[in-house]
Design brief:
Layout: H1 2-20, E1 27-33, E2 54-58, H2 64-70, E3 75-77, E4 97-101, E5 105-109, E6 114-118, E7 124-128, E8 147-154, E9 160-164, H3 170-177, E10 195-200, E11 206-211, E12 238-244, H4 259-273, E13 281-287, H5 294-305, H6 308-311, E14 326-332, H7 338-385
Parallel strand pairs: 1-3, 2-4, 9-11, 9-12, 12-13, 13-14
Antiparallel strand pairs: 1-8, 2-7, 5-6, 5-8, 10-11
Helix pairs in contact: 1-2
Bound molecules: guanosine-5'-triphosphate (GTP) and magnesium ion.
Amino acid sequence: MVLIQNTLLGSARKKIRTYLKGKFLDTLRLSLRGGHGGNGLPKYGGVGGQGGAVYFQAKEGTTLKDVLHKYPGKRVLAGNGEESSKVRILGRRGGDRAVEVPVGIRVLKEGGELVAELDEDGKSCLAAGGGSGGCSGNSFLGKPGQTRMVTLDLKLIADVGLVGFPNAGKSTLVKALSNATPKIASYPFTTIRPQIGTIEYDDYRQVTIADLPGLIEGAHANFGMGHKFLKHVERTRLLLIIVDIFGFQLSQSHRKRNCLENIYALNRELELYDKTLLEKPCVLLVNKMDKEGAIDEICKYDKYFGDLKDGLKHCPEELVPRQLINLERVIPISAKSVTEIDKVKRAIREVLDEKAEEKLREQDAAESVDDSERRDQQLRGKLREQGPRIG
Ligand SMILES: Nc1nc2c(ncn2[C@@H]2O[C@H](COP(=O)(O)OP(=O)(O)OP(=O)(O)O)[C@@H](O)[C@H]2O)c(=O)[nH]1
Ligand SMILES: [Mg+2]
């Protein structure tokens, strides 16, 4: 029996391995069941053991593929509580099951309700509790554990997210900036899954950057790969928007968009996905400046990069965003040139630091307002205690 079970499990694992080869998993549905409580022993007043619970624990370096390899049937069961017996009046508690999941996981119940957000290494949450053991209060009958379907939804955690149309040079840039080794090719949709690289600075500071598959116009209506990868920029602190100086044309049947139109189109796709993304600081990289004719091209649009509002008069109606992105810097680059990569590296660091300082200043200001309000309240309280003044 055990042999048959092992063989079946082995073949399921094999199928899953083949299916997952090359596939990026960022969501996984699991069926969970807490352990059943053990029965009590009425004759001796014995209490059955509590059923074990299912937990999720975030662990650096784990992927959703690892979870699936471990639970190919997508079912996680905790141990049942032990029954009370003459030799062991208090039944032993059933074993807990701690499922290691990637950092950045959101645990969602059926219907999408958020159970927990495991965004730090080591953070854990209870996902399905065990049933209580049988005792005098429940006729000595152990209770079943909680049964629950959950979805694990992964949002990558990176400091910087790259947003651009296909072929703009996102992967070329990430490869030059960081330790990531994404595939680069001269056709669109080379990148089909997100990848995170780490940028190292001379003072050992590290900044993580996410290379994402290219967006296309109409991604909000599920064209191309749709918006499904944009969730991975939700937790970033900075957006690197990258456009090809010569614009982008998906195919002969699509309209060619120049680089200014590309910026508005990306702005609009971000807005249609989630307008709070527009509050993030953005750095615009105008790429492929080493190509012939690039200088003439940038001269046409340069004046609008500093004031996107002014450029709206050249924007086709269908691309006009309601709210414009916050461009902190505009840097013309060639992702193939080492010196220009250094410029980008410095700018990333500067903007991240500026924003962090701004946030600290705002927190300090809010705290000092709180302090002065507290002092005012104390003073008013004291005056009330002293009673009304005569005269
Ligand atoms: N001349 C020139 N070519 C570049 C530059 N940056 C990228 N390329 C070329 O542009 C093509 C696309 O580059 P990728 O880095 O794969 O572009 P991507 O934005 O990651 O594309 P997708 O993954 O399809 O979205 C490749 O042939 C690169 O060699 C650049 O600065 N100058
Ligand atoms: Mg790419």
